[in-house]
Every structure is written in C-alpha cells, then in structure tokens.
Design a protein that fits this description.
It contains no helices and 19 strands. The protein is an all-beta fold and 265 residues long. The strands form four sheets. Strands 1, 3, 4, 6, 13, 14, 15 and 17 form an eight-stranded antiparallel β-sheet that branches. It has a seven-stranded antiparallel β-sheet with strand order 2-5-16-7-8-9-12, with no helix packed on it. A two-stranded antiparallel sheet has the order 10-11. The two termini are 29 Å apart.
Length: 265
C-alpha cells in the first residue's frame, strides 16, 4: 500500500512519527531539520522507517540550506544525500562523516548504509565522486556536483554512476535551494532550483536493470569533515510520479520525465 503523498515540514521540536534521527541530526524548532552543525567530522541522518513499494517510483522534493561553515582545501563541506535502501531491511548501519555524505563507505574501513540501492548527493567539497575516499569508481574530487552512487552494503559496493556540476546556489535559509528527484522505471532525474528558476542536471540516468528491490525505505543525510557547514532541510515531499495532485500553491508547471511537476510557494 502506498504511503504517498507524504509531506513533512520538519517544523516541530521532536522527530516526526515514523522518522528516526541518528548522529548529529536534530529538530531546530525553527522549521528546519538540522543534519549537521558547523563542526568538524559530523554525520546526521533522518530515516523514514515505513517501507513502500518500489514499482510505482517516487518524486521527491525538499528545500536545502547550507551555511555558516569554514572551508578546508578550498571548499566548505561536505554536503547532503538522499538515499534508498531495500525496504525489507531495517537501517542498522549509518554512513559516517566526511565525503560519504552518510550513504557510502569511506576508505579504508568506515562502513556505509546496509542494503543501499541508490544515493544521490549534493556534494560541496567533492569527495563523493572520489574513489580514493568513497565507494568504487569515480572521477576524482569534484567540488559542487550532483552525484549518483549505486547499490552497496556497509563496506562493499557503492559504485560511482554519474555526476554533473551544480549551478551557483545561495543555499541560505532566506533563499534555500529546492532539490527535485525522480526515481522511476529504474531511471533517475535530478534538478535544483531557487524561487522560479531551476536547472535539470541529470535526466533519465538508467540504473542497472534488475537490481531494484520490491520495496524501499528512504533516508536523508548530511556530513562534514575538516570542512564544515550547517546542513538543514525543510518541506520534504514525496509523491508518485503519476500523482498530479496539488500539495500546495501551484506555480510554474515543470515537465520532467514526461509528467507535470509543480513549484510551490
């Protein structure tokens, strides 16, 4: 049975029903879920414990702010990820700090999530693309990229799949970035935007055929390393790709993956 549409503002002071917080993740009581403070080597995860069928696919959007940090080697860090694991399993391993973005493993021995299917990163520092630090395969350190890594389990897997550079983004609380993700028919689309402008970064990236579990659970993670940032999320929404119902005020209809998407004020 579908649990969607799902809307979570993260406006409260305690974790919402069916969500678990790990590590540095906390509710600010100011309308934001804070995944990391601006402190070194932090990792925070918010995990939805309810499973849902994988076959209909999902459309995800949320607002992201990342501010207040100190750079190391030329960039603040590290970034955030949205990920899916096999929904028949519980989350018993949470990705660590630094370039893993809370999804993949970090060499030589720090585990990533268990039974991971896909991790999509908004990576400021750039290590989520670097096989010397994270998972298998990659393009080397790539600052300010949207990155997709594939399936993995704790210390194995998490292959680099693709990445694309991010546009210039304010990422403040006053002007947060809206992240739009679609995972449907084993294809992934990633877009980001601010106010009435958006950029489609990755379109219809084809995941390995036959690797999709029958159901999913989802997580949101943020990390810091030597470089820091406050990473916060609000107005998290998940719908089915064919669900055209309004979750708020409709503005500027977007056509992505052949169906209508909408911005919300």
């Amino acid at each position: 049975m579908s649990i969607f549409p799902l809307e979570e503002s993260f406006a409260g002071t305690s974790a919402p029903m069916n969500w678990r917080l790990y590590g540095s993740a906390s509710m600010t009581g100011q309308g934001w879920l804070r995944l990391t403070p601006a402190e070194t080597y932090k990792a925070g995860t918010a995990f939805l414990t309810t499973a849902f069928p994988s076959s209909p696919g999902i459309s995800v959007e949320f607002e992201l702010s990342a501010y207040g940090g100190k750079p190391a080697d030329g960039s603040v860090g590290d970034g955030v990820s949205f990920y899916l694991i096999d929904g028949s399993k519980d989350l018993n391993s949470v990705g660590g700090a630094g370039g893993t973005l809370g999804y993949a493993n970090h060499h030589p021995s720090q585990p990533g999530v268990n039974n991971g299917y896909i991790g999509i990163g908004i990576d400021r520092w750039g290590a989520f693309s670097d096989s010397a630090k994270v998972g298998t395969g990659g393009a080397g350190r790539s600052k300010n990229h949207a990155v997709i890594r594939g399936a993995g389990d704790k210390t194995t897997g998490f292959p680099f799949l693709t990445h694309k550079p991010l546009p210039t983004l304010a990422l403040t609380r006053a002007k947060p970035t809206r992240v739009y993700l679609t995972i449907f028919n084993e294809k992934v689309t990633v877009s980001v935007g601010e106010q009435d402008q958006f950029t489609q970064l990755i379109k219809d990236y084809k995941l390995p055929t036959g690797s999709e579990p029958t159901e999913f659970k989802l997580g949101l993670s943020g990390t810091t390393g030597a470089a820091t940032n406050i990473h916060e999320i609000r107005n998290f929404k998940v719908t089915l790709p064919t669900d055209l119902s309004t979750l708020g005020q409709r503005r500027n209809s977007l056509v992505v993956e052949g169906y209508a998407r909408h911005r919300y004020s």
